[in-house]
Design brief:
Number of domains: 2
Radius of gyration: 35 Å
Number of strands: 0
Organism: Lentinula lateritia
Domain DUF6535: 61-240
Distance between the termini: 79 Å
Helix content: 55-70%
Largest sheet: none
Structural class: mainly alpha
Strand content: under 5%
Transmembrane segments: 161-180, 214-239
Pfam families: DUF6535 (PF20153)
Protein name: DUF6535 domain-containing protein
Length: 240
């Protein structure tokens, strides 16, 4: 009796407000946007004519699209949320590391302020020696000059190296995150055509999605970010 009522009265599956039910809380799209998602595809989609079971508008293709739409929305939705957070964190972290790295690289270069101070001090000593009639050759020569080469200690070298690796990893994560977000956007892009064409296109995209291990790539990005953070913390300890 319930099945007969559903067939004769399309509004029997509607809620109190007269709106269609949603599949897992998602708005249905495409060819199945006006159907009730109760899992009974024989009622939602009309039966196929004889010898048209695999035709362009066959029930099997509409059923396939209805099932895969919900699956894709759930998988891609969860992945996008994590990627958005990862992109924000990678961007802010890279900015912090870049600022500290700019300051740390100065320790690898010649400190010309110190060179100037040393030469001025030597000049003052020479003037004093001349004033008192002492020998100028007795004045010690400054060890610093404009041609002096930088000789950073190992601590500064390690600090800059660790922070450089950390910055490279964080920028790589940011770049990979942007690329993955573009992949996901293209994966869910709406395409025209018959249900059969849309089903073939979706399956082609899903095959590529699995072949390139996109979900595994998304899972590796936080690990790389943690490694980058570890390098930064070690360098920070050496810097301080």
């Amino acid at each position: 009796m319930q099945n007969q009522t559903s067939l004769t009265n399309p509004d029997a599956h509607r809620g109190p407000t007269g709106t269609n039910r949603h599949l897992f809380g998602l708005n249905p799209k495409g060819y199945f946007m006006n159907f009730d998602f109760d899992g009974d595809y024989e009622q939602r989609f009309p039966s196929d004519a004889m010898y048209e079971e695999l035709g362009p508008n066959a029930r099997v293709w509409k059923t396939y699209l209805a099932e895969t739409n919900s699956l894709d929305e759930n998988i891609i939705g969860e992945a996008r949320d994590g990627l958005d957070s990862m992109l924000v964190f990678a961007g802010l972290f890279s900015a912090v590391v870049s600022t500290l790295l700019v300051q740390a690289t100065q320790n690898l270069q010649v400190n010309y302020t110190q060179v100037t101070t040393s030469l001025v001090f030597e000049l003052v000593q020479i003037q004093r020696a001349v004033a008192v009639g002492a020998s100028v050759t007795d004045i010690p020569t400054s060890l610093l000059s404009p041609t002096t080469k930088a000789k950073p200690d190992n601590l500064n070298v390690w600090t800059n190296g660790l922070w450089g690796i950390s910055l490279s990893l964080s920028l790589s994560v940011a770049l990979a995150t942007v690329l993955v977000k573009q992949w996901l956007h293209r994966y869910l892009a709406v395409h025209s055509g018959t249900p059969r064409d849309r089903s073939h296109t979706r399956q082609f995209r899903y095959t590529g999605f699995e072949k390139w291990q996109v979900l595994n790539i998304i899972g590796v990005l936080p690990v790389i970010m943690h490694i980058s953070l570890a390098f930064f913390l070690v360098g920070l300890v050496l810097f301080l």
